[in-house]
Amino acid sequence: MTDLNDEQRQEILDAIKSGKKIQAIKSYREYTGQGLKESKEFIDRLTAQLLEEDPDAIQTSKVGCGTAMVAFSILVMLTYVGMVS
To answer: Residue 60, class by beta-carbon neighbours within 10 Å (0-12 exposed, 13-18 middle, 19+ buried)?
Structure first.
């Protein structure tokens, strides 16, 4: 991250640590003028390095298919209750 000033570097690190990898890639591209592929590869390497140094350094989201299924089930249940009433 030699092309970045301290503030830009910290912004990218904060984005990675808070689980906002896409934002980190966008910021890196904006600050360095690198392409998407190069920026993604850089952020992936940086993320791996951070995880190696401290596995708990990066927030991970546990939202996925299970959450979608719960939401869908609630929607179906509410629709059914509305039809029965």
So the answer is: exposed
pTM above 0.85, yes or no: no
pLDDT tens by residue, 38-76: 999 999 999 999 999 988 888 865 556 677 777 778 888
Is 22 within the bounds of a domain? Answer: yes
Please check whether residue 20 lies inside any domain of the structure: yes
The range of the structural domain enclosing residue 33 comes to 6-60
- Tell me the CA distances in angstroms from 85 to 54, 55, 75, 80, 82, one per residue in order: 54, 51, 16, 9, 5
**55-62 long-range contacts, Cβ below 8 Å, gap at least 24?**
57/17, 58/16, 58/17, 58/19, 59/17, 59/18, 59/19, 60/19, 61/19
